[in-house]
Specification:
Elements lengths: L1 H9 L22 H11 L10 E5 L14 E4 L5 H11 L4 E7 H7 L1 H10 L4 E6 L34 H7 L4 E6 L3 H13 L4 E6 L11 H4 L4 H4 E3 L7 E2 L5 E6 L2 E6 L21 H8 L7 E8 L5 H15 L5 H5 L8
Parallel strand pairs: 1-2, 1-3, 3-4, 4-6, 5-6, 7-11
Antiparallel strand pairs: 5-11, 8-9, 9-10
Helix pairs in contact: 2-7, 4-5, 6-10
Length: 344
Amino acid sequence: MTNNTTTAQKIPTLTKEDFVSDQMVKWCPGCGDHAVLSSFRKILPEIGVRKEDIVVVSGIGCSSRFPYYVKSYGFHGIHGRAAALSSGIKIANPKLQVWMITGDGDSLAIGGNHFIHVLRRNLDINIMLFNNRIYGLTKGQYSPTTPTGQKTKSSPHGIIEHPFNVGELAIGAQGTFFARAVDTDPKLMMEVMLEASKHKGASLIEILQNCVIFNNKTFTDITARETRDDNQIHLKHGEPMLFGKNSDKGIILKGTKLEVVKIGENGIKEKDILVHDKYQWESGIHLLLATMAPPKYPMALGVIRSIADFTYDDKMENIIKQEKENNPIKNMDDLLNSGKTWDI
């Protein structure tokens, strides 16, 4: 406790303005990325980390301009390789808090292999995946999350593929933390960002983000004022899964499937509604929640899964420490004089 207090005293008081860079933000007016950036800058002073210990890493895409707009250390990488860069940075300097900013094209297509393995390894980094269901920077081609049948510049007859569900993919890759938010709800975005920053391991936030130019209103059924009460459910740990304008709808488990019910109908009472447990080790319910979508179900928002497990970087640090202690070579002189030597 004393050590934590001492560390906290050394961290200067920071504000949102301390994380505003001198770079012009070059996103389209109305783009959801603006709200994500504002929310991120607001939470950074609250996480209790020095600016020098924060690194923002990205690949390629509209979302990947993020490092330029945050006054911290940053790395703008190449397409699909943000996970590899983030891994190297974290392993080289474990004290850094690494934020990996990526998109549905960047991480689920060319970067798909790296993405699933950084989750499987449970490296202690924070990942924000902006999902706008389109390639925005390259002008409107379909992405791995674009719905089947949608016509785009690269699918004029409609998409003939199944889209990825980000949460299903993450939990299937043994992810220990998965949350979801929408760009129209800054408060929720800040809540899940703060929780992600505290999680020990790979934390993934999927942000449903609107591209006003190439895929406008793709999430309108979830975000529109007329439908959002019935099409969103905000999960809170330890509380029943209720939603609707009057909080009179809920989720129950019937057999192996989730079912939407209404309190008061067919004898349903609030005590029958599932209570959210984000710490539940078994992934079954979390997986079902992550795959819910309108019109049959509401979209699950908030922290869906957050379990404790060992991290790759901690294991690596322990191995390095043990090797240093057991290795007779302690410095360069020891190395040069080890084995056979010759005088010339």
